[in-house]
Amino acid sequence: MATRVLITVDTELSLAQHQQGVSAAENLQSSIFGICDDGAYGIGYQMDRLDAHGLKAVFFVDPMPALAYGNSVLQQIVKPILSRGHDVQLHIHTEWLDFIAPQPVGDLRGRNIGDFPYQAQVTLLSLARKLLTDAGAPEPVAFRAGNYGANDDTVRALAQIGMHYDSSFNPAYLSEGCNINFPEENTGPAEYKGIIMLPVGGIYESDYSIRHAQICAISSQEMAAALAHAVTKKMPVFNIVTHSFELLNRKRTRPNKMIVRRFEKMCELISAHEKVTAVTFQNSGQDLPPVADRGDAPRLAPNAVRALLRRLQQIFGHLAYEDLTPDLRQSRDQEPDTRRTASR
Fold it and tell me: For 78-107, how does the pLDDT look when each residue is reduced to its tens digit (9 = 90+)?
């Protein structure tokens, strides 16, 4: 049986740009379509590369900016994804509640969905789902929390509103906002509180720490080794993460070509491997394997040489592609996923 790979793209507008007064159109160009002087490196580019390799991806789309910008901005994200045959599922960044009116949960605020009490989570998740479907998306069946910031109440709330899958559990973020009490050693899929959990894939950085399978966080060599390991250990699913803006540098002024190459290499690896197949949640997740009795196939063991080579690559990428001049406009943003896990 082939190992299924979920290629997932957290697709979200920038709250920091909204705080700085950037228009919806400019935010879309930068955060979603990755437009810069060198070209476009957002979801359009990602879909071009995926399509070239015969792959489909899951775009976890955050609908909360529609409460600030209007639903038309969400339609401009959802339509091109669906028109090219890729999958749209539900994402949420609750930081947007600070900048919208009226407030759906009164005075309650939180950086993460897991910061809210259970009933408020039900309200917010139901609202986000309606915003997404109003923008033309099919009824979502899968969810990922922004910042991976979910808890057990989030899982219960998802079950309450009729969702089937959660992809919020990231063992690399257990000290950074991910508060789901799911077994760390379980690589999934596994049922938990009425939801099928599909943990984010990862490798061991050391005997005690995990580095998650995000394009900007692990090297192409580590990705290749992780995929080969998943096949050898008969992992039913390996869950990969990237973002709509991840192929750009931090200031989104130009592509980070090291990350661009990693994305391309990932597509090549998955397409060429006869025992790996990319799947989505379309068709109600029928391409996904059934829940296993045990989902605890071990993650790839640490390797000092691979880790050192990745760190050297990250340093080179940072020096070669990042704009190192100070940016006095920088503000709180909803995008720590790519900032904490990699020095690039």
Answer: 999 999 999 999 999 999 999 998 899 999
Over range 269-294, report the average pLDDT. 82
User: First and final CA of the chain: distance in angstroms?
Assistant: 35
Confidence class for position 208, pLDDT limits 50, 70, 90: confident
Question: Which 3-state string (H, E, C) describes the chain?
Answer: CCEEEEEEEEECCCHHHHHCCCCHHHHHHHHHCCEECCEECCHHHHHHHHHHCCCCCEEEECCCCHHHHCHHHHHHHHHHHHHCCCEEEEEECHHHHHHCCCCCCCCCCCCCHHHCCHHHHHHHHHHHHHHHHHCCCCCCCEEEEHHHCCEHHHHHHHHHCCCCEECCCCHHHCCCCCECCCCCCCCCCEEECCEEECCCCEEECCCCCEEECECCCCCHHHHHHHHHHHHHCCCCEEEEEEECCCCECCCCCCECHHHHHHHHHHHHHHHHCCCEEEECCCHHHCCCCCCCCCCCCCCECCCHHHHHHHHHHHHHHHHHHCCCCCCCCCCCCCCCHHHHCCCC
Please tell me the pTM assigned to this model. 0.93
pLDDT at 192 over 50: yes
In this predicted structure, the answer to whether residue 256 has a pLDDT above a threshold of 60 is yes
